[in-house]
């Protein structure tokens, strides 16, 4: 046999190929070492800086009226007091200072990123994941030279791409936690921001863009998940430097999905906080182009298009309207059916943004409620077949976004409230989620807060807006159309006789038993069981004051007015649920917003209470403590003062013990101070209320001696 040897030409070609391969391997390793050495000198990103980059709504000291929770005060024609615990207006997408990427990367189960003000929700919902470079084929490592180990790379950072870097696998940096009390692994602020190279997008960022961003160069965990864009990466290896808005908008209508991703990603990045860019994008017709990409056959295009839209509509009413006018709601609801959690997070975030515009709420309710309930609320609330809440972190955020959307809608018109009450499965989902969360000790959950606020808003003016057949069932034959007690006789007894009262009491029991059976839908809003749920929230929710405020506001709504059922539920709360003690516990430490709903609830309860003496011994001292007695005292808002005085008046007219306790706990001094203070319209209201109460107190002649000992005369009590 003979040995065949390669020709000289073949040897030359193979030698050149081997040399070229070795050169490329060496270049890759050198580039990686230089980058890592350069990054060792960078300061770590500060959590405060990262948190400042979050967009969206938050509880803040400046409350916005578009996101309110409503409560009724006592009286035949109660007026609404707007409770605005959440100024949640919009969602945006978290920027990377020098670059950005798709919105809504999967959150880790242990960290979330949120800003907080006044103990409220994060002001934003802005997700970042970085652009990840495509991974080059791995090469065998070689020892680095002394020069490489000890000297930094001096190459131009603008032109140095990350495309060929193979980054190690380690966790991405997150901003520090700002919330507590999440449900399961759910970020309590409704999600977080995943910083770093979280996704392989359409192109790699330049090293300069990363160095200037102030973040660590985080090694991506999921880089292999997003490949296939090597061609696009090869053409755009220098960052966003060579792209502008007109070019990005043109990319949206390109046939290449990679270019569509690039265009949408640039819009998301550029429109994070630049209002002029949002306006320019709208003028370039970016809105209809993005809407058409919501249901692209390419999933990455869908994600980037919805992420860009999320930023475009943030705090921009014109862009929100443009989205709706381009049939955007219909396309969003189609997209919501996709089995992709990242996409569903973006869609529900967009809906939450849109719902902050008052002029869009009725239309959103009309076009979204049924589908949102079927696709999100019922399955994720645990109302479905399982009966328990089973949410992964992404699903928890989807549910949180959806309940925030409902919370905004529920503060709109009567028409929208009624549509929400009638939407099959909506109220049931809210009730089931709150009840299940209480059972597993998750009362602090932020979605619980949203759900309770929805229930509070839907119970606003409930007896005036419920179906006539339901109202007639609750009211029975006791009242005529005007709401007053009828003059019919019970047998031979007058309506005011003891026998008549016993008859009415028995009728209450019969109605109570009937109504308590198997509530469905809106029936939950006035069902006796709901009182127990609100009571447990007041007792168990220690940290989230907005949840307890909403619970007391909902109780205030369903006990307001002179309707028969308002009295039934009031007495149920007092006598069966023993709700007075947890309410008074809240009063001791409540801020002004909480005091409005708490004192409004006590006002309703004091009107319907059977035993005024017993109630007086429990509440008078706590309420007197909240009243101002001199110019330097810290005074609650005027409506809180009016509520407190109304409670005292309701008790005084039937209980001498209430009048005695007012004197004992130094209430006279405070009431006379309030009576004399008439320097504003609000103070005028509280002054008149104090004058009325003092006039009623003078009717107890046994207390005149005590009054005189404190230096007060008849004229002081009876003068206006």
TrEMBL record:
GO biological process: cell-cell adhesion; desmosome assembly; positive regulation of cell adhesion; regulation of cell-cell adhesion; regulation of gene expression
Annotated stretches, region: Disordered: 43-81
Per-repeat ranges for ARM: 285-328, 327-358
Cellular component, GO annotation: adherens junction; cornified envelope; cytoplasm; desmosome; nucleus
Subcellular location: Cell junction, Adherens junction; Cell junction, Desmosome; Cell membrane; Cytoplasm
Major localization class: other
Gene Ontology molecular function: RNA binding
Amino acid composition bias (Low complexity), ranges on this chain: 60-73
PROSITE patterns: ARM_REPEAT
Regions that span the bilayer: none
Keyword Cell membrane found: yes
A family per Pfam: Arm
Family matches, as SUPFAM superfamilies: ARM repeat
PANTHER family the UniProt entry points to: PLAKOPHILIN-3, PLAKOPHILLIN-RELATED
Family the entry assigns: Belongs to the beta-catenin family.
Name of the molecule in the record: Plakophilin-3
Gene expressing this chain: Pkp3
């Amino acid at each position: 046999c003979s040995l065949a040897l390669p020709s000289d030409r073949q040897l030359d070609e193979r030698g050149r190929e081997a040399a070229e391969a070795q050169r490329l391997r060496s270049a890759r390793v050198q580039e990686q070492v230089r980058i890592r050495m350069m990054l060792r000198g960078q300061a770590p990103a500060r959590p405060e800086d990262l948190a400042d980059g979050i967009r969206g709504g938050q509880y803040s000291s400046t409350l916005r009226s578009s996101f309110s929770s409503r409560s009724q005060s006592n009286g035949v024609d109660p007026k609404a007091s707007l409770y605005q615990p959440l100024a949640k207006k919009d969602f945006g997408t978290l920027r990377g200072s020098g670059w950005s990427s798709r919105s809504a990367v999967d959150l880790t189960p242990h960290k979330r990123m949120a800003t907080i003000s006044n103990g409220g929700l994060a002001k934003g919902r802005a997700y970042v994941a970085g652009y990840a470079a495509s991974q080059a084929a791995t090469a065998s490592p070689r020892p680095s030279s002394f020069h490489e180990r000890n000297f930094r790379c001096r190459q131009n950072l603008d032109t140095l791409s990350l495309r060929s870097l193979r980054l190690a696998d380690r966790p991405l940096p997150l901003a520090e936690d700002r919330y507590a009390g999440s449900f399961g692994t759910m970020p309590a602020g409704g999600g977080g921001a995943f910083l770093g190279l979280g996704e392989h997008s359409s192109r790699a960022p330049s090293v300069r863009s990363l160095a200037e961003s102030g973040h660590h160069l985080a090694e991506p965990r999921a880089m292999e998940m997003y490949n296939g864009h090597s061609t696009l990466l090869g053409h755009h290896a220098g960052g966003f430097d060579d792209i502008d808005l007109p070019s990005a908008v043109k990319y949206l209508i390109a046939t290449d999905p990679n270019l569509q991703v690039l265009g949408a990603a640039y819009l998301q990045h550029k429109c994070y906080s630049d209002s002029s860019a949002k306006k320019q994008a709208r003028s370039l017709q970016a809105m209809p182009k993005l809407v058409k990409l919501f249901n692209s056959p390419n999933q990455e295009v869908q994600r980037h298009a919805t992420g860009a839209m999320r930023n475009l509509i943030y705090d921009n009413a014109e862009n929100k309207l443009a989205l709706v006018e381009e049939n955007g709601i219909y396309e969003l609801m189609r997209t919501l059916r996709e089995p992709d959690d990242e996409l569903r997070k973006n869609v529900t975030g967009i809906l939450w943004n849109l719902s902050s515009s008052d002029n869009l709420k009725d239309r959103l309710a009309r076009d979204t409620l049924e589908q949102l309930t079927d696709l999100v609320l019922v399955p994720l609330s645990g109302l479905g077949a399982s009966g328990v809440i089973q949410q992964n972190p992404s699903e928890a955020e989807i549910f949180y976004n959806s309940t925030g959307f409902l919370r905004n809608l529920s503060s709109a018109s009567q028409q929208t409230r009624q549509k929400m009450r009638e939407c099959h499965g909506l109220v049931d989902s809210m009730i089931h989620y709150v009840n299940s969360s209480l059972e597993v000790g998750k009362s602090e959950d932020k979605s619980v807060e949203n759900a309770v606020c929805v229930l509070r808003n839907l119970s606003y003016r409930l007896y005036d807006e419920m179906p006539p057949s339901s109202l007639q069932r609750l009211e029975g034959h006791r009242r005529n159309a005007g709401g007053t007690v009828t003059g019919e006789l019970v047998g031979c007894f007058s309506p005011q006789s003891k026998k008549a009262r016993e008859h009415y009491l028995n009728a209450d029991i019969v109605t109570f038993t009937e109504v308590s059976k198997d509530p469905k839908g809106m029936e939950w809003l006035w069902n006796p069981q709901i009182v127990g749920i609100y009571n447990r929230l007041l007792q168990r929710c220690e940290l989230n004051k907005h949840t307890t405020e909403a619970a007391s506001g909902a109780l205030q709504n369903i006990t307001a007015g002179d309707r028969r059922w308002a009295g039934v539920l009031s007495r149920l709360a007092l006598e069966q649920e023993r709700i007075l003690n947890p309410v008074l516990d809240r009063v001791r430490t409540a801020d002004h917003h909480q005091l409005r709903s708490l004192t409004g609830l006590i006002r309703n309860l004091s009107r319907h209470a059977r035993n005024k003496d017993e109630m007086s011994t429990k509440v008078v001292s706590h309420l007197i403590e909240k009243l101002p007695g001199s110019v330097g005292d810290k005074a609650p808002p005027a409506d809180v003062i009016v509520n407190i005085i109304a409670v005292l008046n309701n008790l005084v007219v039937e209980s001498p013990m209430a009048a005695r306790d007012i004197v004992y706990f130094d209430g006279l001094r405070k009431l006379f101070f309030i009576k004399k203070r008439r320097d504003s319209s609000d103070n005028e209201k509280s002054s008149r209320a104090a004058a009325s109460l003092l006039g009623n107190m003078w009717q107890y002649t046994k207390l005149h001696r005590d009054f005189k000992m404190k230096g007060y005369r008849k004229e002081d009590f009876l003068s206006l």
